[in-house]
Amino acid sequence: MPLRNEFYGTAFSILGSEQDAMDAVQDLYIRLWNIRDRTGGLTSPLAYGLTAIRRICLDRLRTSAVRRQAGNIDDFLDSIDSGVFAADCRDAEKELIGRETVESLEKALGELPENCRKVARMRFFRQMEYAEIMEKTGYSYINVRVLVNRARKRLSEALYHGNRR
């Protein structure tokens, strides 16, 4: 891929993780592909790409900070889906808290708009990649990301408020 090393170096210097940097570069190329018909007049693809990769990395840092603050809903949803959550609920109190949490999650999931709920189930419970979700729903990459982030935020809020009782 053209300019991959420059974009990767910038992403790595911001994110500090090889995997995150590679994911950010992949996101950049997906974004560039999606707007390929509007980029014909670029005078400096390197400058455009570096600006875009910086923004992607900063978005990732902001998102991860918010996720850490609200609790990692992905880990929780994965544990429910894999059955680990049930195995950890040994005593009655933990099981009751677990049930209440699952109930508040199910209620929050039911309150989401239909398109957001559909995308959230695909992403969190079926662990589908964005490309698969795009293919199944016909939504654009950006639309899928927005719907997943909205669902994650609402479900995180439901968990946070549900656990405060």
Summarize the structure.
The chain is an all-alpha fold and 165 residues long.
How would you characterize the overall build of this protein?
It is a single chain. The protein is mainly alpha-helical and 165 residues long. It has two domains: 4-69, no CATH class; 72-163, Arc Repressor Mutant, subunit A, CATH 1.10.10.10. The chain contains nine helices and no strands. Mean pLDDT is 77; it is low at 83-90.
Topology summary:
Elements: H1 4-15, H2 18-34, H3 45-70, H4 73-82, H5 84-88, H6 92-111, H7 114-125, H8 130-137, H9 141-163
Helix content: over 70%
In N-to-C order, the SSE pattern is HHHHHHHHH
CATH topology of the largest domain: Arc Repressor Mutant, subunit A
Corresponding CATH superfamily of the largest domain = Winged helix-like DNA-binding domain superfamily/Winged helix DNA-binding domain
Mean pLDDT comes to 77
CATH architecture of the largest domain: Orthogonal Bundle
Major sheet:
none
**CATH structural class of the largest domain:** Mainly Alpha
Strand content: under 5%
Tally of strands: 0
**Stretches with pLDDT under 50, minimum 5 residues:** 83-90
- Measure the end-to-end span: 52 Å
Anisotropy-based shape: elongated
The tally of structural domains comes to: 2
Structural class designation:
mainly alpha
> Number of helical segments?
9
Task: Round the Cα radius of gyration to an integer and report it.
Answer: 19 Å
